[in-house]
Write a sequence for this structure.
C-alpha cells in the first residue's frame, strides 16, 4: 500500500509535467519556476535571470551630470520610510537635465538593472515613431493587417490600426491580470512563442469603441515593427533597432537587456532591464520632444501625439497622462510601481523603481501626485 502511494506521489508530478507540455500549457511550468518557487506571487523586477534575454548595446557611455545642489536635500523621514516599506529600489529626481536627488534602497545601487515591466510599452511606441520617420511604416493610421495578414479574414480585426493598438482601443480580445494563472497575460509573459500567441488571437469589439488596457496590443505593435523591418530588408532585431536608434545615440551608461521568448522575440510589452539613470534619460528624451544633444531621435510631433489624450483623459499613445494635475505631468508606468514621471512645467523627470507598491493607494490619484510633490521639494520648488 505504501509502495503504491509513493509511486503515485512520484508519478503525478511527472504526468502533470508531460501533460502540460503536450497540451501547449508549458507556460504554467515556466511561471511556477520563475515566481512561486522563488517566493513570489507574480513577476518581479529581478526575474531576468530566469528568462532568455537579448542585449541592447550602448556606445561611448556618458553620465548624466549632477546638479550643483546634488543631494543637498534629504528625503523626509516619513517619505523615506514609506519608500523603504514598499521595497523601493531607486528614487531619482532630474531638474533641467541634471540629477538633483538620487536615493537607492533595499540593497540596490546606481548600476542595478531592474525590470521596467510596462514602461517598455512607451519605449516600443517611440520606436514605432522612428520607424514611421524612416519609412518602414506609413503612419499610425496604417492597418495592422498590412503587417499581420493573419487578421485579414477577421471581420473586426482587419479594420484595426496601429493607432488603435497604441491607444488601447483595438478591440482585441484580452483580459489583463497579473496574478491569475488563467489570465492570458500570464501565458504571454511565460509562453514560449509570443508572436504566435498574439497573432492567433481575435478581435471581439469594433476598434476605437472602447478602452481596454492590453499587453497583447503592445506585443502586436512589436510584431508589426519586426515584420516591417524584415519586409524592407532590415535584419535588425528589435533589441538591435533600439540600440541603434536610441541606446547608442543617447550614450547610455550600460548595455540593457530585454526578455525574449524561446524564439528570440522580445517581450516588448514589458521587461526592458536597465538602471535608474538610463530610465531617467528615456524620460528626458520625452521631455526634450525626442531630441538628444541636438539630434532628433524621435520625431517631435510624434512625441506630442503620444502625450495627447485619446478617448480617456488619463491615456494617450502608450503613455499615461496626469494633465489635469497641478503641475501637469505624464508618465511611463509598470507593474509593481515602476514609474518615469515627466513634469514639463518644471523641466523635471522623476524615477521610482521598486519591488512592490502601496496596494491601498490609487497610483494615478494618490501615489503619483505624492511623488511629484516630494520631487519638487527635493528640487527646491
Amino acid at each position: 500500500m505504501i509502495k503504491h502511494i509513493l509511486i503515485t506521489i512520484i508519478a503525478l508530478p511527472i504526468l502533470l509535467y508531460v501533460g502540460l507540455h503536450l497540451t501547449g500549457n508549458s507556460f504554467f511550468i515556466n511561471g511556477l519556476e520563475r515566481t512561486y518557487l522563488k517566493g513570489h506571487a507574480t513577476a518581479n523586477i529581478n526575474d531576468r535571470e530566469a528568462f532568455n534575454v537579448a542585449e541592447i548595446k550602448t556606445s561611448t557611455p556618458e553620465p548624466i551630470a549632477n546638479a550643483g545642489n546634488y543631494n543637498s536635500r534629504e528625503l523626509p523621514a516619513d517619505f523615506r520610510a514609506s519608500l523603504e516599506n514598499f521595497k523601493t529600489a531607486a528614487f531619482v529626481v532630474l531638474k533641467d537635465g541634471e540629477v538633483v536627488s538620487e536615493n537607492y534602497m533595499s540593497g540596490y545601487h546606481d548600476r542595478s538593472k531592474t525590470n521596467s515591466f510596462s514602461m517598455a510599452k512607451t519605449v516600443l511606441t517611440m520606436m514605432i515613431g522612428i520607424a514611421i520617420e524612416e519609412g518602414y511604416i506609413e503612419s499610425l493610421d496604417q492597418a495592422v493587417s498590412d503587417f499581420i495578414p493573419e487578421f485579414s479574414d477577421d471581420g473586426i480585426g482587419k479594420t484595426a490600426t496601429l493607432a488603435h493598438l497604441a491607444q488601447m482601443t483595438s478591440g482585441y480580445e484580452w483580459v489583463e491580470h497579473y496574478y491569475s494563472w488563467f489570465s492570458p497575460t500570464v501565458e504571454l509573459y511565460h509562453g514560449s512563442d509570443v508572436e504566435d500567441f498574439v497573432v492567433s488571437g481575435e478581435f471581439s469589439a469594433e476598434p476605437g469603441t472602447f478602452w481596454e488596457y492590453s499587453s497583447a496590443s503592445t506585443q502586436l505593435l512589436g510584431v508589426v515593427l519586426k515584420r516591417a523591418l524584415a519586409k524592407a530588408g532590415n535584419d535588425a532585431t528589435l533589441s538591435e533597432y533600439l540600440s541603434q536608434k536610441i541606446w547608442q545615440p543617447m550614450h547610455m551608461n550600460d548595455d540593457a537587456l530585454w526578455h525574449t521568448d524561446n524564439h528570440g522575440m522580445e517581450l516588448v510589452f514589458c521587461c526592458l532591464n536597465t538602471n535608474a539613470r538610463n530610465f531617467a534619460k528615456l524620460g528626458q528624451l520625452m521631455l526634450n520632444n525626442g531630441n538628444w544633444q541636438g539630434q532628433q531621435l524621435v520625431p517631435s510631433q510624434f512625441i506630442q501625439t503620444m502625450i495627447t489624450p485619446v478617448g480617456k483623459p488619463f491615456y494617450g499613445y502608450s503613455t499615461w497622462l496626469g494633465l489635469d494635475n497641478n503641475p501637469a505631468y505624464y508618465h511611463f508606468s509598470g507593474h509593481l510601481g515602476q514609474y518615469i514621471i515627466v513634469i514639463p512645467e518644471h523641466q523635471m523627470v522623476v524615477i521610482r523603481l521598486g519591488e512592490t507598491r502601496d496596494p491601498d493607494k490609487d497610483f494615478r490619484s494618490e501615489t503619483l501626485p505624492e511623488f511629484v510633490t516630494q520631487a519638487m521639494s527635493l528640487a527646491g520648488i
